[in-house]
Amino acid sequence: MVFIVVNRRTTDIPNVNKISQLFKLLGNPKRLQLLYLLIQHSMSVSEISMKLNWEQSGVSHQLQLLRKYNLVQQRREGKTVIYHLEDPQVMTLIADVLSHAEKII
Question: N or C: which end of the chain has fewer CB within 10 A?
Fold first, then answer.
């Protein structure tokens, strides 16, 4: 468990902009679906597109954004690019949020 220490004299949270950006990325339902899918299994753009019933261009756009912020990685298998989520902290964060959402919603 991570605890944030807040200075008692101010309300500044260290790295608040980075934290806000992460929540914006995770707050998009499509990106969250995509990340949840990649937690379960590494996939190509075409596989993701079929599973989520999205256009491949939309999948590619979301993956590009997630790669920019190091939430997903890619590896090449021949001509196919496989995307995967290997960051255990992101996996844990998503699992914790899902668990919490089930309790409060």
Answer: N
Mean pLDDT, residues 38-56: 96
CB 75, CB 17: distance < 8 Å: no
Would you say 81 and 75 are in contact if contact means Cβ atoms under 8 Å apart?
Answer: yes
Joined together, the tokens standing for residue 36 give 């949840």
Q: Is residue 85 part of a domain?
A: yes
**2 in any annotated domain:** no
The SS3 of residue 31 is: helix
Residue spans of alpha helices (H) in 28-87: 29-40, 45-52, 56-68
Q: Is the pTM of this model over 0.85?
A: no
